[in-house]
Structures are given as C-alpha cells and as structure tokens.
Amino acid sequence: MEALGLLFHGFAVLLTWKTLVLMMVGLVLGIFVGVLPGLGGPNGVAILLPLTFTMDPTSAIVMLSCIYWGALFGGAITSILFNIPGEAWSVATTFDGYPMAQQGRAAEALTAAFTSSFIGSLVAVLLITFLAPMISSFALKFGPPEFFAVYLLTFCSFVGLGREAKHKTVISMSLGLLLAGIGMDTVSGNLRMTFGSAELLRGINFLVAVIGLFGISEILLTMEERLALRGHAASISLRVVLSVWKDLPKYWVTLLRSSFIGCWLGITPGGAIAASFMGYNLAKRFSKDPESFGKGRIEGVFAPETAAHASGTAALLPMLALGIPGSGTAAILLGGLMVWGLNPGPLLFVEHKDFVWGLIASMYLGNVVGLVLVLTTVPIFASILRVPFAAVAPMIVVSCAIGAYAIQNAMFDIWLMLGFGVVGYVFKKIGIPLAPFTLALVLGNRAEDAFRLSMIGSGGDLKVFWSNGLVGSITTLALVLLFWPVIDGLLGRVGLTQRTRATSR
Amino acid sequence: MSQTDIEIVVDDPTAPEDDSPSVVGSGTIEILVCLLLLALAITLGYDNWRTGASWDATGPEPGYFPFYLSLILAGGSLYGLVTALVARRAASGSFVTRAQARRVMAVFVPTLLFCLVTQFLGLYVASFLLIASFMRLVGKIALWKSLLTALVFTAIMFVTFDIAFDVIMPKGPLEAAFGH
C-alpha cells in the first residue's frame, strides 16, 4: 500500500493554514462561477488562473482544483432552484430536481444533489489514488511512438464517438492542431505560419483561446436569451440533511452504477455531459416505476449528479498519469501545469511527488469541505442570481481581459481573446464542437513532437506504430474508433441481413 | 415549510421578442464559415509548403505535420461546404433574429470599445468605464449604483492583481499620475 503512505504525505503537505484558506477561497469562487449565468467550470478556471501565477505549484493547483469542485457543486443549485442548468452536465439534474423544488422539497433535492456529487467524486478519487500511480509507472516505459499512439487514440475517439457531425469535429480538431503549430517549431527551431508577424512568434496561447472561446462567447450567447428567471429560495436544515442521508443506503445500486458510468466516461474523453444523461437514463430504465421519473423523484437527482461528478473528477486521471486531459477543465489545468513549469506526463509522479499527492489529497479534502460549505451557504449563493446580468456581464468581460493579458503580458492577447470570442460564438451556433479544438490546441505540440521523434527514430517508416504489441494495439484501436460509425454500420447491416434471412426462412 | 413560494424573481424587460424576423439563416453562415476555413487552410498549407513539408536528412521538415493538417482542414471544410450547399434547399433554421442581434451587439460593441480603451488608457480605466456605462446604458440601472459598482469592482481588481498577487496589468496616464 505504497499509495496510502504517499497519500498521507500529501495530506501533510496540505494541512497548513495557507493552503486551507486558499482551498476555501477556491471553493467559494468556484460556487460563484457555477451559479452565475454565462460562466462555467472551464472558463472560470481559465479566468482565475492568473491569480495563481505567482504561487508555488501545489498551492496553485489546490486553489484551481477547488474552483473546479466549487463549480461542479454550484451548477446543481441553479438547476434545482431555477430550472436553469448552470452547466451542460446539470441538464439532467433539472428533470427531477426542479419538480422537487416546485413541490416544496428543494432542500431535499439540494441535499441529494450535493451528497451524490460528493459520493461520485469520492469514488473517482479513490480510483485515481490507486490506479493513477500504476498507469503512470506503466507509461514510464512509453517511447515517442507509444505516446503518439495514445494521442491519436484520444483524437480518434473524439471523431468516432462524438455526437456532432463528423466533419465538424474533424474541422474543429485540425484547426486546433494547426493553430497550436503557429510560432517556433519546437524540434527544429524554425518559424512557421507567422507571416512575419512578431506577435504570432510566441504562438497562440492555449489559455487565451480558452478564455475567448468559453468566456466571451458565453456572454454573447447568454445575452441572446431571455434572462428573466423565477426560482425558489431554500435553506437546508440539519433535519432534512439527516433524513436524506438516512435513506441513502436504499439507493446504493443507483449511486454505484452512476459512479461507474461516470468514471468510465470521464477517463475516455467525452465526458461529464454524456455521463449525466446516461446515469439518469439507466436509473430510469432499471427502476421498478419508470413513470415517476421527471415528476420529482429523488433518484432522478442522485443518478445524474453522481455520474457527472465521478466523470468530472475521473477526467483528471489521464491528465495526471499520461498528460492527456479527459475534459475541457482538465485541459486548462494541464495548461496551468505548464505555466508553473511542470511537465505533465508519467514523470510527474516520480519528479513531483509533493505536487501530485498534494493534489490528490486536496481532492478528498476539497470535496468534504465543499460539501459542508454548500450545505450551509445555499441561500446566499442562490441570491447571487438577483444581481442583474447588466452588472455581471461587464465584470466577466473585465475578468476575461485580465486573465488573457496576465498570461504573457501582451496586449495582443486581449485582441486575440476577443477574436476567439467571436469564433466561439459562431462555432457554437452552427454546431462545430469546441471541446476537440481545445484539446487539440493544448496537445498539438506534444503530439507533433511525439510523431516527429518516432519518425526520426524509425527513419520515416510508418510501421513504427505497429512495431510492438503495445503500440500496435493502441494504434489499431485508435483507427477502429475513428471509423467506428462505419464499422458499426457494417456490423448492423450484417446483423440485419442475418435477421431478414431468419425471418424469410 | 413555505418553500413552495417563489422568492427570487428577476425580470428581463429588454428580452428579445420571440417573433422577431431572422437576419440571416444558419445555412448561409455555415457556408461562409466553411469558405473562410478553406481559405485559411489554403493560406496555412501554402506557408507550410514554403517552409518545407517533405523530408530531409534529419527527418520530417518543420512544415510536414501542419501541411497535412491543413489538407485535413481543407477536406473537412470542403465537405462541410458541399453539405451546407445541398441542405440549403431545405429550410434551414435562423442563425440570429433581429432582436437577438441587437442584444448581442449591445455586449459586443462595448467589449470592442473596452479593448480599444485598454490599449490607450490602461485596463483599470477601461474597466471602470465599461462597467459604469454598460450598467447605466444597457441595464438602465441607477447612475449612482452603476458608478459605485464600477469603482468598487475596479478597485478590488487592482488590489487583488496589481498589489496582492503581483500580476501587472496594462496602465495608462491616470495610473502614471499616481505613480504606478
């Protein structure tokens, strides 16, 4: 049980007043970000990232990950009380959460949401604690071909398994990879695609793009909609909390099922949104009384929230172990690691033990503190929504600009942010997904380096990606996933023909 | 428990009307975006070709990887262009209605001005102006509330970033007058 010893060491790193205060600050900011319309987990973390530039990496990651946990908790508040999902992964929570609030069971629904979030993340953190060190020590044997194969797998699974039109995912991903290549070429030192511009020399910073794509564009999108809202106010009493907790064991199957779904979907890119819907639908299908879902059933809150949080947390596993983020927010945290001078990847577990185990320990602690915090302060956070959007919107714009500027102290980045804001707005409206773009932009250089190093190693022979069992099976799997819709269709046709033959006989 | 009472109500008097006419259809925008992406792919592809997209003694040249990516991007946008042109016959949804466009511009234009002012007068002055005028003109919030909010928010940002966390923002003549 080496992991346990290291985990306790992680707790020891954490238990200083400074980190505990940062943790609280992060959680409060995170809940804020989760509750406010026009701001979500990824852009909240991206905007607040500059605050951490002058901190040491461990404090920085503790604060940032707490912002993330806070945002995850915060999304549930508006879903239940106002029927407005603060985040896309909270949509499924509104199905039963809002009816519960209408029936005067808001406190119960909120307690259920927070508790199940907690349980979901706990399961995922346990998984990270024991699995991440194993995966990373396994990945230490990886050479460039293996790494490129893993990157390829990530990209291909986005194209093959994503629900958007395939060509739009391809567009978004290749655009991200291309923009990542602008500036100095990391292998040869030559300049590429700069067209003589001194500003483009630095390349397009990933975080600047994210702030524009998610922060600015989200404000534009929010303004398009009717901003009027009516909601319930609720405070949670200890009695309600205890009565919900007393019933928890009855729902262990739902909780466990959703946790597994969440962990699985969190590790494979795809994420929390799919997980929350799948958790909800499966709970409904396996229920003895599926009709009562959507009318205020507590299981309808448990199932999606557990899955969403398990997935949001599990997304950090591949980021820590392999340096490949499983979600947009994980991608931004990865961008943060690079800013703090840490090199993401399997070596992190060897070279920066304090950092990694501090982070893992902060996931445990952050979730416990977060649970207590949201349970006690819900009324305050719900009333944030009274603040008119006309006051919130310009403040978000200013925060975005501060965030974008602070990364490289460049005015050009503020303009770049504005440009990406427009791009994000248009892309979202015509259905070009932004997640593959984000992932491609952050992984682009690393993927290219891995590819070129393996090519240099093999003398330009593509067979290097099938040179041994490990790399061969990853590459093959990647190609299978890329063409999955085609393969699935073919299999379906074969199945169909057999069936028709059977009936005609 | 009296939690069934609705206690938080926020109205939105300037909300876009539902029956506002469409300014432009999504199909048209999709065609436009695909054309722009195609142009970008060709520009970048050409630049990479110029940099060197083949092999030399040490392995792939710098333009190799991005060159093939621009081909993929060009392929994707061409496919998108064709599908959008074919689908155009069928009625496509509205990209933005006139009322929505007005609201989006109400945020976009001030944001653009904010960036301009930041360039010349520094971020904090721009921030104060943006918040105060946006709240007053777009949100129709009382003048004193707008000014106070803008001042407090800008001050908090200044203290947090420039003083507490040492993250230096662009500044203009006003800050210079106070010796920052």
Automatic annotation (TrEMBL), chain A:
InterPro entries documented for this protein: DUF112_TM
Domain DUF112 residue range list: 20-438
Transmembrane domains' residue ranges: 20-40, 60-82, 109-135, 147-163, 200-220, 251-278, 319-343, 355-375, 387-408, 414-443, 464-487
Domain of life: Bacteria
Keywords assigned: Membrane, Transmembrane, Transmembrane helix
UniProt-listed PANTHER family: BLR4373 PROTEIN (PTHR35342:SF1), TRICARBOXYLIC TRANSPORT PROTEIN (PTHR35342)
Protein name (Swiss-Prot/TrEMBL): Tripartite tricarboxylate transporter permease
From TrEMBL, chain B:
A Pfam family the protein falls into: TctB
Keyword Repeat: no
Segments passing through the bilayer: 29-46, 66-87, 107-135, 141-165
Annotated DUF1468 domain residues: 32-170
InterPro entries per the UniProt record, alphabetical: DUF1468
Keyword set, alphabetical order: Membrane, Transmembrane, Transmembrane helix
Protein name: Tripartite tricarboxylate transporter TctB family protein
